[in-house]
Amino acid sequence: MNVPKPRLRAFTLIELLIVITIIGILAVALVPRIIGGPAKARDAQRKAALQQISTALELYADDNQGEYPVVLAPVCVSTLAITSYLTTIPADPQSAGMAWCGGGYGYSSLDGGAGYMITALLESDTQTGPGVVDGDTFAAAFAAGSDYSTNYAALDECSGVLCQGGTVYYVTGR
Fold first, then answer.
1. Which of 140, 99, 97, 139 minimizes the C-alpha distance to 119?
2. pTM for this structure?
């Protein structure tokens, strides 16, 4: 009696190549999104930190007849006397902030303490939204008027013709 052998099931070479091609296409589409994710998360953390600092500065102004800390040139936020309003001043997640500030956040008083501006350097150059400006826009916005250009001319990132193109900042203030 002749018993038939069980047939072995296997993938053909064509089937394997099709699967490998599909996986390759998916990988090419997903890798850039995965790589950019951590930078965008750190940028979100920077924006949240500037909002916390802004709240502390508002509390400071409430206790000081509506005036914010006055500085003659841009300084690091960490040097401001706001620790009674914000016990721990947030630091940049990667110390990749303003170079002149040791990688922290920059602070500048405007109009003799009537206003202020705090600035963070963002990693992702594709960020958009309120408060997000590129170096060229930043330079144009503060090149004319009040003491803005004087304050920001001292920034390393903004030396010479103020800010350099390709650099993206998050700016908030009053």
1. 97
2. 0.67
